[in-house]
Fold:
Amino acid sequence: MHWTGAFVLLLFAVLVLGVLLLLLHLTQLGKLVHEGIPDRPRRRMFLAAVSFFITFLGVRLLVWCITHHIGPFGWVTMGGRHIHHLVWGIFILLAVGYAWLAEWGNGTSAISIFWSRFFAILYGVGAALTLDEFALWLNLANVYWSPEGRESIDAIILFGALLGASAWGAPIMRRLRKAA
Structure:
């Protein structure tokens, strides 16, 4: 069986969503997150950062497997045209942006909190899929594994640092000030 990249990306995104939501609600780790990270906006930043880095690593591994013909994976193509994963990332970011504009997940009910976390995780997935091909935007050429492709890694590091600092930076700095 030949698995298309689209199917693998969809399966991967669903797995990231499911695992993170289950960990958040059913484990001791979830309890620590609930106790240590305020709900909004810090917990959403945390979930976006975790899903961002997991997706980046997963997509890099998937592309490496495809380019080295490891496993049953293949490129996403439509009519013979390769569809890059930044396209899927842009679609996800547009959907999350629309949901947040429509104020889905902004309430205090249990379902609203679920949607808030769901969209935060999706945001991280979409951002990683999009920024992983930042060098493609910049060079208008497929430079994924070339030296110019390093620009994508730089974009991932910079945006990941922003998400990470937003999620963890302020609480850490507050604790350092209290300790001093």
